[in-house]
Amino acid sequence: MSRISTKKFGRTKSPIEHPITSDWDLALTHEDYNKLLEGFRPRDMDNKWSCVTDTPDAKGNTVVHVSRSGPGPTYMHIAVEAGNPHETEGDNWGKITSITWNPKSLGYLGEQVTEEEAKQEAINFSRGLMGCKMSNAPTLYVYEY
């Protein structure tokens, strides 16, 4: 099985098993983009999640990898596109362009995770772990991480 390297913390994670990818056009503020770049690294073993972001490419585009702390599978990838670095004001600076997830990994009691549920989980991870406002995103339910 191949492994992906998450450059920020020098850790490796397994690729997503049975991946499903869906397009997404969710606008981001410059502030939220920067928080996604920072990711989330748990301070202790009580927090079971980590969000590690690849080093952005020349255009500022990147991928956020959400996974359980320690070794194990990646649960989702959130593809992020940067906006114009000279115009950082407003609610529509960059955007999330797609999400990839394992439909079985986030489900409860073996249920399949739908596209809507996976997107809501990505919003919850972004808000709860990385401190993003995600002002352009809906709130269907909130889970405290």
TrEMBL record:
This is Uncharacterized protein.
